[in-house]
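Tokenised fold entry reproduced for everyone:
>
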Amino acid sequence: MQAIHNLSIHEPSIFVPAFTELLPSLLDNLLAPRLALRAQACHALGGLALGASQIPPSHTHTRLSEIVNAVLTDTSSSSPSSPPRTPSRDSMLIKTLRTTLGTHDPSCAAQGPVWALCTLAALIVLLGPALVTSTKLTNAVKGLLALSIRHRKSSVRALACVVWRPLAWAYFRPPLTRGRDEEEVEVEEQAWEDEQTTKPTAWTPAQDKRRNDFWKVVTTIVDMGAGVGTVGALLAHKADDKRSASRAITLLEAMVTRGGSMCHDAVQTLCQLVSAPGSAAKVVGADEEGDSDWDWAKLLPNGLFSADPGLLTIDFASLSEEVRHVLKQTATVADVRALSASELWMTGVMDGLIKVWRIALTQVCLSWDAVLPVSRSSFPPCSVGVVIDLFVLVMSSLNSSNHGTVCSRQPSEDCKAQLKTTTMMTAKTRTWCRNLPS
């Protein structure tokens, strides 16, 4: 099974299709009586899932999804007399995952929540868009993740936030290929490369409705950088998509409302969104190279799927160290692209950005005897210095030569008035800061 993992990652286009028919055996070994065999099956499953994510959509993904779907929805081992919608009607694999997620002091990795979360992440990737359009599968996965979020060990809760990235990845996948000839599949693969198949027109109205319901699940967790990753994925395709921009702003509003580290992430992401490409490195956490293309692998950290050695071999008491290592492999603020001038002038975008900024101001906590720093660079994260300078970046980005003449439409009078009000508020806030008693 180690060979399945390694070969699937190193040559996915060759070995993922070849190993597809071995998937039922891997899923059976997840329920094996020997714990070592369970851990090996989880590791092999992670490699197969990671390899499948690296090849264009094809019938192979459809077959992988069908196999996992059949196992997760198989209730033949349950009692026929059991009433519906009870845990006893779940498949054996779902029951096992639920049991291990509820374990607080496992004697080995294959008996605890780490094994369950690594397995669940691989199953999410293999299911792909079938998870998004199936209410039954969505409810099953949602219930398991909700259980992990309530775990009393903080590192397990953090790992559950990492698993939220594959959920977002599955949401943005194109529809599975069903009953199409090779020519149609090639056209779809080219469309995927051209970043077209994730648009709403690729789905039927019924599927789009289920995707909207699934989106609510994706946005449930925004902690531990999960919200930043989702915002980055929303804006991955450099197209003037009003719905994506609106959803990104709504997600940032949810993050900033919750305060703490999530507010910090939201404010830094706001700075990134309104920064010109040449000034992206000025945002905290950005690299010197500025904007870069979105890397979908940032939603599928290698440490979550290649967990031996790693999450499956680490001592449960030292789990936090390995979880931090996995979190470093996920998307950061620096990976989120800046909004273009045309996107900034879209109806509602400026209003949404200003609304998030105003909410961020309410999250700033300073005692009256606080000594304020004298320069912006010396402010602590998510402090007044970052927030009051946010829309200075908006004004500069709209006039920046880096944007060129992307947008030919002139801003409306209402938008001009809003920008003028924002500038006045920034000046007043600076004055308020200077007048705080020392």
